[in-house]
Design brief:
Three copies of one chain form a homotrimer. By secondary structure, chain A is an alpha+beta fold. Chain A folds into two domains: 114 residues, Rieske [2Fe-2S] iron-sulphur domain (Rieske Iron-sulfur Protein); 220 residues, Naphthalene 1,2-dioxygenase Alpha Subunit, Chain A, domain 1 (Alpha-Beta Complex), CATH 3.90.380.10. Chain A is built from six helices and 17 strands. The first copy, chain A, has a seven-stranded antiparallel beta sheet with strand order 11-17-16-15-14-13-12. Chain A is globular. Chain A starts with 7 loop residues before the first strand and ends with a helix. Chains A, B, C: Pfam families: Rieske, VanA_C.
């Protein structure tokens, strides 16, 4: 499997998770502390005091500054140390690295890599999550598995039939062939499965009110390494969008996964589900939140098992890939390529 | 200590443990899934789907077939994949290894090694366990220690005096010398301790009804690596079998241990105790089941401690062997020899 | 960081911890069993039976002898094996190492290294702990961190302001410069901080009855590797000892830490606090015992965190030292030097 891909934006948190406390989160193996200044800006600093490596996240804020909880070394939002105990002079080299951050589409994004290369325009979009025309439910689950297993999992939804039967899986998912397309230049992978006449999983029957069979489209759009989008369209069987692109009788669900490696063997699994129907209906929201979380946890449980299995496999263990794996294999290839410069640097 | 001995039969389970569910068990480091077909035959397959290594034991049966719980790859009892999702063609190479199995003497035996060399006639016998002339109590305890420590433990019963005092140990066990015999050709080790006049441990006093001192014989017969038999004879002191071999006043207990390595540092400890007296007496069975389990758990606790100790010892740590270790040292020597071909192959 | 320093006395236990049971304790990675003979002498033996490495501490005493709980090998207080099961002859080489021990100042000291070099006159003193002119509270906390982190912690008390605020820390501790002196020949490090006019921490206000500001002296005396003394003097602000050295209006607290490495990554943290006021006052003792334990546990919690951090740092990670670290750096340098002969031996 591939290594970490650096010099990328990753989702570190939901914006609502970061406030006037100190939030410790490890991203690509780097321990980072997040907080907001009194002005509301997000700060991300390396979570280790320069003095004796004590985690700043075990400390406290004094205004916009972090005061180390061990000996009181104090840092401003740029990471510069502005006070040390027992003396007035602060050593010139006393500073902790700060990380470029950006808030977009309800997420706090952090740049992992060379700060000089951070460019906000490179952040991939998930606009539905902050769009009043959609209602969103969401969560974050700790996954004790390498991020590549989550990518594998999401790139092929035929597993819905087996792992998520009774929730979002029906026999048609596994039975319907997929089409896969790779935009090498923009580095986006598209996997589509259009079921013209499928059973409606209870999950959607209850939330949309559709009775009987459905037309169900699943259009995946993966922006490696960090953002996965699933454009999902549900409609009564045979009902298609109009020739003008409007789709008044379709129900649209935008499923967003932010896939953020925590360590080599664990991952932050951010999931959000935005819908354009039953807007603001709390009962539907509660139902979808609970059911989506259950589905995510079914994946988490399976991938945690798989991670433990793989860690005990000998190097070069074999897999057998079939048609459904086309998207996942394309993802692995691109991730491998994106990781290469960092691997070269590590040699 | 020696390594795993492959190309051998091992006890994988009691026959009653294997049914229409999926039983995961690791034997000599190999993850295996066991189940019964609708016809009642035991099937043993490698517990890893060929596709992405998901454990088949986390899946479900569909008739006699196992359906992988992740993506639905389906296997027949021979391990051949008969169905994959999203396509009709099944790749020719899609199969998981199947293991030779046999049911004998109440156990499910599995052959670990080259399947072509599996020969049911090589399975060592413990006929009492399935003989209506005996009543058996039994159990299986997980042991967090290498199997060699259990072999060591069982080959010298003088530890009964110290570790199992108040149960099966009395001073005479440690005080009485042993005789040891090794049948190099058949690879069987015999260790005998005949106490002509010994205290009767409460354990036997209660179950046999003997009052006063006893003649107590312990005849060990170890078939490396997997089967250990202790032929135990109890009688009122001075009462011997007749010249014709009949023994109407003796009480006979056949203690059987199946010693199955799970990993390099853990073992399946199957124990069974068959008696030819108080047949079918549930009160005696309950008493013996509870007491034998207590004794087994005393060993397990001590060996778990010893395993942790040994893992922290430097290589080549020293032991000091005395007379009581003759049987155990013979066992180590034979196990070492039996493991050799596999070690050579591993180089 | 430095390695273990051998050929030294270490505190193994409080004298009251060692009695007629078997006490297992690992010192500098060596498993040792402690007990008292019927005459009251402390015995320290290697905690591994020569036979099969079973821990003697899992055994029992028979008079002054230890009987191994597995096979009954029996040792006298010198470590000589005097009985083995199943035979009358005891192998000549059957003995476990015994450790030189001494009782002094309420502690049981054990010599780790070459027994021939053990010299009781080398044991550093903490006489207050066994002096009727003082009342002592004390404890022992398991620390999941290398001992060097505890040395670092204790050599600079400016952390009291941040880690122990509300207990023994006030702003003056961190603000007041220290003086450091190193006696290279006797290998003692002195660090002093004299605060002429400081807030009185609740901790001392309550136990001394002083109202208002105080003069507070902290005089550290570290005898590497094993004993740390903090001579603490509290008095109403401006009250100094008399010219003749008497100090009737001062309150004296002798804080003693015995720092005993357990393994490379864990430490026995013995702490004792002796006072020359409120002698025998149980209420004051209870208050000081609870508060001192809280302070010790604040350190333990922080150092446990730091140990986990450091274990994940790459080799040669950077620290930034300032004035307050002068004592700690001197301690590291001396420990490094004291560990050298053992390192050379290990090569």
């Amino acid at each position: 499997m591939s290594a970490f891909v650096r010099n990328q934006w990753y989702v570190a948190a939901y914006g609502t998770e970061v406030g006037r406390g100190l939030l410790a989160r490890t991203i690509l193996g780097e321990p980072i502390v997040f907080y907001r200044t009194t002005a509301g800006d997000v700060v991300a600093l390396a979570d280790r005091c320069v003095h004796r490596r004590f985690p700043l996240s075990e400390s406290r804020l004094d205004g916009d500054r972090v005061v180390c909880g061990y000996h009181g070394f104090t840092y401003d939002p740029s990471g510069t140390c502005v006070s040390v105990p027992g003396q007035t002079r602060v050593p010139r080299t006393a500073r902790v690295p700060s990380y470029p951050v950006a808030e977009q589409d309800s997420f706090v994004w952090v740049w992992i890599g060379d700060p000089a290369r951070a460019d906000n325009s490179l952040i991939p979009r998930a606009p539905w999550l902050a769009d009043p025309a959609y209602t969103t439910v969401r969560g974050r689950e700790p996954l004790a598995a390498r991020y590549e297993l989550l990518v594998d999992n999401l790139m092929d939804l035929s597993h819905e039939t087996y792992l998520h039967g009774g929730y979002i899986g029906t026999p048609e998912v596994a039975d319907t062939p997929i089409t896969t397309e790779v935009d090498e230049e923009r580095r986006v992978i598209y996997v589509s499965r259009h079921m013209a006449d499928a059973a409606c999983p209870p999950f959607y029957a209850k939330s949309t009110g559709i009775e009987g069979r459905i037309t169900r489209w699943q259009d995946i759009e993966y922006h490696p390494p960090c953002l996965y989008l699933l454009h999902s369209r549900i409609a009564p069987a045979g009902v298609l969008p109009g020739a003008d692109g409007t789709d008044p009788h379709g129900f649209h669900v935008e499923v967003v996964y932010a896939i953020t490696p925590e360590t080599e063997h664990s991952t932050h699994d951010f999931w959000a589900v935005a819908r354009d129907f039953a807007l603001g209906d709390q009962e539907v929201s509660d139902f979808l939140a609970e059911n989506n979380r259950t589905v995510v946890l079914q994946d988490v449980e399976a991938l945690d098992v798989l991670e433990r299995v793989i860690q005990h496999e000998p190097d070069g263990y074999r897999e057998l890939s079939v048609n459904i794996d086309t998207g996942g294999l394309a993802a692995r290839r691109i991730l491998e390529k994106m990781a290469e410069p960092d691997r070269a640097a590590a040699r």
